[in-house]
């Protein structure tokens, strides 16, 4: 403070305190970035989490692997999620962590082999079918026109096929084989089937569709797609097929409004069944083609009520009931759509002329809840369609989304309103968003999700081969979805008079509630989409998990169309609108209070609408003001036949981002954290990744950022059963192979480090013992080092790297190899940090080298991390003087910030000494004219003790130690 700033009036002593010891503010905590496959959550973009409980809430728990119970329906829990264990290891001792969940993405230039997703092997029809998708069709018994049947189940075969066996419909001596029409056995839609794989019958079983039976179809057939993969796991367990969708609750629902009411009431033992390939002559194997990238689940487009009183011509359409909006999950993937559903409730018309817009509430519900026990997750009340209102639906819920730009390698953000929901965002029709639609419009209904179209099945008059056709089209045309088996007698139908088969076949689809009988009351029933097994019980129908899946590849985009009319192969499951609700007596009675409310398509046009010619609001005031909407079509983009969809052994050195979706997905995930102005991080790792090209990409990313250390895993060591076939002994790998591979990598970078060997941890939550890559333990030790000391301390040794003592953040109980002293020397000479196992001290990280070959201070992790930290912090301080006058006062201001900061680092044993030079010798007049300030900072990093030499001198008895 200048003496001129004191106010002197009368005599006295004037004192002012000036504190020059204050340290510059250090930025918020920065943590690692961890990439990997996780149970659920945001995908392919970094998300910062501050605690492990928050991590679990967003991404789910760590998966130890080894669970193969109905993988198709329940999800892939067969392989460990190493990224989750790494996040847990760090978050137990420090925070935050940036997490990038991997899903299947594909390059815009992807070849056929490079497409994301999965498919079965191609089918051939010279002789027995071999590979592809096969559907079981069940129809009522009888001859001639026998009524309505249904697809009941789908098998996916990588080899061979599935066929029914037993009593043939044709009893003229045909032998059961592929495509035969067979009579049912027992009760509960029971049949007997053979699994025909690898040229012979490998399995014969009887099955039915009763979930309580030991013969239930999902209990007797393989439901784990990963067992078809002979490149991993146990060769003895390899299967040629798996059971995918099964529609047990669809078949057994006897509700009168159900398309299968006739089949459902057929007496036991009186059914016919046939298994046929689900494909088309032109597009071979299309039902078994699911080559498509990850995608968010969404609802159908929700349309408005009918504002007209012209009941006789009513039909939901763009002009009669305009589209308003739809919802999409914020997070992509299959499970997001299966886990939740949406309800619209409390729909109210406006009661004032000043504000003609009505209101409604949007609710996110658990997907498996019931109307009797509703489980709300999120609620957004008093939403409206007024773009200028604070309660505008897009403002209340949010409409922003990120879209990846492959060309620029970054995300672009779209939308106007920040997402308030962590589960859904809303997509509003542009006319609504522009205020061009009628202000009285309110949400009232939607076209149900897409399903495969219905068709006829018929025996041909010219030979035994069947004829199939979609309903309403030329009966001589083979449809897109079904292909007959080539051999003439495969259907088991005679040429002459006798048994013939002609039936209408429906494909299962999402169900709509048809009455309120199982609800607490007529007004408490949520009409529209229902997950209940039938109209008399509110119990959840598990086959809904199958219905929400994305359709096959060639129909993938069409399933999201507004009306689903762009492809003759698919149609909407139903068309629901509140305008079609009908009261107990089935006529116009809006003034009554029905004990039971009903719904059926076309009730309004048939004169059975509860609303009748009254206003829409008149029905709402009676309490019939809510409906439920499904989420569907979400997709992971992963190969369901892989235990670990990103296994290293499936990414060859000759593969690229265009020929292998896993490589493209990982490259994209790394690119999403490449910009230091977008993601603050000090470590980058994908635990378990040993692909050398991708490991190099992580290292280059860290070098380009110049503020992060890559923690990589090395090829040649332990391989889990997700990577190879064989016993654990066969998959242990070798130290020589690891050293050889790192030499082939030819890295000379201080921005990366590696460890050996793998370690075994005990899952703290589940108690399972899990082999995890060494990077998991290393990341945990980094966190412990920061908590106990400072990040520039060596993350190694018994003080901070004692894995048996809990320094890994997760309990480490073993190593895949006990290293000798000579082996530790060999590893350290190759710049690989050993994880040693001592008999008394336990397991410990016993090295802290970077991958830099050139000898310097930066060949140690503690120095590299120190430099990364110091550079980032001083860069932030430098930002504060940008655009300030290029004068000595500004230079001094900068030095006054940096000096106490470096002094603090020195006081905390990060630096032995430092010097800052910023004056006329560095910033010359020429540089000033070019708007440049040039400073020099000299640092002497504090080295860690890695070698201790002690001489023990043995003396004679008379020697004096003072000499």
Structural commentary:
- Helix 3 runs parallel beside helix 15 and helix 12 packs parallel to helix 13.
- The protein is of the alpha+beta class and 963 residues long.
- The protein is globular.
- It is built from 20 helices and 45 strands.
- It folds into four domains: 109 residues, no CATH class; 304 residues, Rossmann fold, CATH 3.40.50; 225 residues, no CATH class; 270 residues, no CATH class.
- It has an eight-stranded mixed sheet with strand order 2-3-1-36-37-38-42-43, with helices on both faces. Strands 5, 6, 8, 11, 12, 24, 25 and 26 form an eight-stranded mixed sheet that branches.
TL;DR of this structure?
This protein is α+β, with helices and mostly antiparallel strands. It folds into four domains: 109 residues, no CATH class; 304 residues, Rossmann fold, CATH 3.40.50; 225 residues, no CATH class; 270 residues, no CATH class. It contains 20 helices and 45 strands.
